[in-house]
Specification:
212 residues; mainly alpha; 7 helices; 87% helix
Length: 212
Amino acid sequence: MKVFYAIVCAAMIFSATGCQSVYYASMEKLGIEKRELMVDRVEEARDEQEEAKETFADALEAFTAVTEYQGGDLEAVYSKINAAYEDSLKAAERVSKRIDKVESVAEALFAEWEQELESYQSASLRSSSQRSLRETRASYNGMVTKMRKAEASMAPVVELFQDQVLYLKHNLNARAIAALDVEVVKIQEEVASLVKEMEASIDEANAFMSRL
């Protein structure tokens, strides 16, 4: 990661102008190129996915525990799974925002790279750079596709969490809790699928950063 102060300064300029091009220009003046920003954002997106994976696993544990209810404070049971649902929803939103930021800097980087190909005097160097651009873009496309696939895998789980929370909100009794066993099986299957997609996306992000 680059110096935090430099990023904060550039972010302040960006927020004041609302213009991505101004943001990237200000970062370059601070010695931070788009390629470096891209690596940082891919790393942040990867880390956010790691955290989301853990958040969903913790939520699954909370929802599974509900089916083992043996008596006690029903309001506390509801509060626990509602908190797990809200944590999962926020985690999914954070992942989406991180991927959006990766795509934003990637578009700027590739557009600049494409444009600067015309500035070469050497045909061989231009050709080499063009080939590198194609390879990097192909690698990036593969990575961001996996990121979006992992992102999409969170939605079914969040929806199942929401359904259980809403059901218990309006049917807060032991019999209603017992009826959720089948739904928990569905959640377990969806979380397993989510974890698989997340891990594939994280691996692809690591591979992309090693090549960039």
